[in-house]
Amino acid sequence: MRELSHRRRMLVLAICCMSLLLVSLDNTVLNVALPSIRSDLHASVSGMQWTIDAYTLVLAALLMLSGSTADRVGRKRTFQTGLVIFTLGSGLCSLAPNLEALVIFRMVQAIGGSMLNPVAMSIITNVFTEPRERARAIGAWGGVVGISMAAGPIVGGLLVESVGWRSIFWINLPVGLAALFLTARYVPESRAPKPRRADPIGQLLVIAVLGTLTYAIIEAPDRGWDSPLIATCAGIAALGLLTLIHHERRRAEPLIDVRFFHSAPFSGATVVAVCAFAALGGYLFMNTLYLQDVRGLNALHAGLWMLPMAFMCFVCAPLSGRLVGARGPRPSMLVAGVAITASGVLFAVFDAQATDAGLLIGYVLFGLGFGMVNAPITNTAVSGMPRTQAGVAAAVASTSRQVGQSLGVAVIGAVLAAGAASAAAGGMGHAASPAAAASFVDAARPAWWIIAACGAVILLLGLVTTGRWAEKTTRHAAALFEEGAPTGQTSANAKA
Q: Contact at 8 Å (CB) between 210 and 234?
């Protein structure tokens, strides 16, 4: 691929950011519309959960396939296909006659969505080849998450109140069509020089592992961890994971190349992604319940309260990208770990939600931490590895995010179950009684400690996986790719 001008590279970055905005905004807007959808389609609470969870499940299961397919058949072509499917799925969602159809159409959206974010990241990686410029581009990319967090609740609230819930899917149509046109005109095609063969067994195992694990995480709070169905799903996930590792280590062209995980920074970035997005999922879930069920705010006003967190994320993401480009990932990861830990401790120990000032400080700290963590995750996942593997590397990071968010919501939801039920007794749209509010705060305390623990893990990995030893492991992993070593073997003489 020939070198593009600076202006052309910036345009490609903007087009890729449009795809991230499309997917991120869709999720935040949908949460605001859930009560209206429930009323219109006569759905249960669990049915509403599946309008979100079906999307997450399909997305997590197919991200790996999309990343490797893009490396093989062409990133631009895969990206365009994803835009078409996602836009079509959005149109179908707006026409859904019942809840079952809406869930199915959300799965169609997820199929398209799996071809957007990881593929867009691999496009960025191949267009921005200079490390510092690439880190800045990734920081700008991460800032789009802050935009979606800020705009989603407000845009969703305005659309639902003025036009109706179906209009939240309409906004995807012009954005998707515009991105499709601009991609066809300006985004260059790229692919791996040596296309890899498909790995259907590996893909089926990935679907089995992520599908059963996600289902178990989602359904365990309602069915109980001792449920035979949950136990069976957990067993299938564990057996599938062991089988997947065994299969991929012995395959010449695997779907998930275990050589990636010989790099301590790559492995650390994967765990950091799970922890960061588990914290985010739990944080948003708890605060949505608190603001609406305990404080009695409507969706629009609750969204306005979340603006400080979104603003900090929006501001810090590009700053983190520049910091990663200038100083490496360690400073950003350390700041992220400290800020997320401090936010969790502030709520767990000092009851930050008791005052408006405390609540605001907690939101600012979490927004600071989450805004700083995205750039080092993505940059570390794709840096130091062959550019021909960019799609798979970015897909692993994206899958880790989805798994983390599902895990965070499920675990925090289980911890909060009793307190949330008591708080909800105050009535949706009305402030809960003092006793119910106190019950909610007490139930939330262990959940805040879980979020603080996620921040502590990020801090620890920021220290451990960014030093000289970690850099050696990355060089060793890259050498394995260059040498074409079998995935199940390492050089006996290699030093990590």
A: no
- Residue 85 has what pLDDT? 95
Most confident of 182-186, 230-234, 435-439, 484-488: 230-234
By the 10 Å C-beta count (0-12 exposed, 13-18 middle, 19+ buried), 321 is classed as: buried
Radius of gyration of the chain (CA): 22
Task: Give the chain as a 3 state SS string.
Answer: CCCCCHHHHHHHHHHHHHHHHHHHHHHHHHHHHHHHHHHHHCCCHHHHHHHHHHHHHHHHHHHHHHHHHHHHHCHHHHHHHHHHHHHHHHHHHHCCCCHHHHHHHHHHHHHHHCCCHHHHHHHHHHHCCCHHHHHHHHHHHHHHHHHHHHHHHHHHHHHHHHCCCCHHHHCHHHHHHHHHHHHHHHCCCCCCCCCCCCCHHHHHHHHHHHHHHHHHHHHHHHHCCCCHHHHHHHHHHHHHHHHHHHHHHCCCCCCCCHHHHHCHHHHHHHHHHHHHHHHHHHHHHHHHHHHHHHCCCCHHHHHHHCHHHHHHHHHHHHHHHHHHHHHCCHHHHHHHHHHHHHHHHHHHHHCHHHCHHHHHHHHHHHHHHHHHHHHHHHHHHHCCCCHHHHHHHHHHHHHHHHHHHHHHHHHHHHHHHHHHHHHHCCCCCCCCCHHHHHHHHHHHHHHHHHHHHHHHHHHHHHHHCCCHHHHHHHHHHHHHHHHCCCCCCCCCCCCC
Q: Label residue 495 left, alpha or beta by phi (over 0 means left) and psi (-120 to 50 means alpha).
A: beta
Cα distance between residue 313 and residue 146, in whole Å: 5
Site of tokens 């930050």: 352
Please check the confidence at residue 423 and state whether its pLDDT lies above 60: no
pTM of the model: 0.78
CA distance 55 to 110: 5
1 CB neighbour count, 10 Å cutoff: 11
